[in-house]
C-alpha cells in the first residue's frame, strides 16, 4: 500500500494531490475501490485540454465520501493523510461544507490505533482549528467535536490541555455571532467534559453559562431543567459555597414558583442556618432521598455556612465562643476546633483558635449575602482607610517641609557664620575650648 509523506505542509497542484489521495484511499478500501477512477473525469489535464478547469467540488465530494476509511489507516500515516485532505479542502470556494464530515470522521473511533486514536484525532482537529481564520464561525464546528472527544475520553490530561485554550471562549462566540442555542450546546458539552475529568467547579461554571443563554425565556421547560441541574450541582459540590450566582438568575426566580421546595432549599443555603435545614427536612421528609441528594454533603456544607454566618454576625467583637458554635452547628464541644479548621480550609473564614479562652478570634469572614448592610460596612471601612491615608499624607508633607528647611539652613550656613548671629556647633565649641 503506498504511503503518504508525513508532512504538515503539502506542496503540489490540486489535481496531482487529489489523485494521490484517491489512490491512497483505494489502497485502504481494497480491491473493487474506484475512488481514483471516479475523480479522474473531473480533473483537468493541462496537456490534453487547454483551458479546462478542475471541478474541485465534484472531486472533493467523492474524496469526502471515501475519507471515512482513513480511520483505519496505519497510525504513522494517519495524520499526514488527514493533512492532505484538509489541504485540498482549503482550496475550495466554500471549505466549511466539507469540514463537518471530516470532523465527524475524527469523532469516530480510530480503529488502527485504539490507545492513541483520541490523541491523534485531537491533534488533527487542533491543527484544523488553528488554520481557520479567528473570526470565521467554522471554528465553532471544529471546536465542538474537540470538546466531544475530550468528554468521551474522560481523561483529565486531555481536559487539562484544552482548558487554558478556552480563556477567550466568550469573545469567540460573540465574534462568531453564534445563536443562543449554539452557545448553549457548546457550554453544555464543556460542562460534561469538565465533569468527566472530575473538574466539578469548571463543570458548574459552564453549566451556569449555558443557563444564562435562557434568561429571555426563564419559565421554559428547558430553563427549568437546567436550573434544577445547576442547583443540584451547586448543592452537591463540596467546594461550592456561593449561591448568589444562582439567586441572581431569572430562571431560578421562576423555579421558586414552579418548584417551591427547591426554592425553599436554595433560600436555606443562601442565607439561613443549620437549624433551618433541619426544619426543611422535617417538613419535606422524603425530598432529599427522592432527588438523589447526598445528605452528608448537605449537612457538612450547611454547618460550614452556618459558621461563616456566625463569624460575620460577630464582626464587631471579632470573637466567637466555642459554646455558641457548638450549639448552632449541633455538634459536641470537643468537635468545635475541627469544624473551625475545616471552615478555614474552605476559605470561608480566617482567624485563630484560643483554647485558653475557648474562643475563635476572627480575622476575616465571608458574607453569604451582600446587601445594604454590607455595603454600609464597606463604605465605613473605606472612609476609615481614606482618613488614615490623609493622616499619613500630612505626616509625609510635614517631614518633607522640615527636610527642605534643614537643607536651606545648611546651604545658608557660611553666610550665617559671617554675620553677628553665628554660633558654633557643639564640636566646634569643644575644639575652641581645647585650644
UniProtKB/TrEMBL annotation:
Any GO BP: formation of cytoplasmic translation initiation complex
Alphabetically ordered keywords of this record: Cytoplasm, Initiation factor, Protein biosynthesis
GO molecular function, one term: translation initiation factor activity
Sequence ranges assigned to domain PCI in this UniProt record: 196-367
GO cellular component labels: eukaryotic 43S preinitiation complex; eukaryotic 48S preinitiation complex; eukaryotic translation initiation factor 3 complex, eIF3m
Region (Disordered): 414-435
Pfam families per the UniProt record, alphabetical: eIF3m_C_helix (PF18005), PCI (PF01399)
Skewed-composition ranges (Basic and acidic residues): 423-435
Cellular location(s): Cytoplasm
PROSITE patterns, alphabetized: PCI
Superkingdom, natural source: Eukaryota
Keyword check for Protein biosynthesis: yes
InterPro entries hit by this protein: COPS7/eIF3m, eIF3m, eIF3m_C_helix, PCI_dom
Database matches in PANTHER family: COP9 SIGNALOSOME COMPLEX SUBUNIT 7/DENDRITIC CELL PROTEIN GA17, EUKARYOTIC TRANSLATION INITIATION FACTOR 3 SUBUNIT M
Family: Belongs to the eIF-3 subunit M family. Belongs to the CSN7/EIF3M family. CSN7 subfamily.
Protein role: Component of the eukaryotic translation initiation factor 3 (eIF-3) complex, which is involved in protein synthesis of a specialized repertoire of mRNAs and, together with other initiation factors, stimulates binding of mRNA and methionyl-tRNAi to the 40S ribosome. The eIF-3 complex specifically targets and initiates translation of a subset of mRNAs involved in cell proliferation.
Oligomeric and partner information: Component of the eukaryotic translation initiation factor 3 (eIF-3) complex.
Protein name per its UniProtKB record: Eukaryotic translation initiation factor 3 subunit M
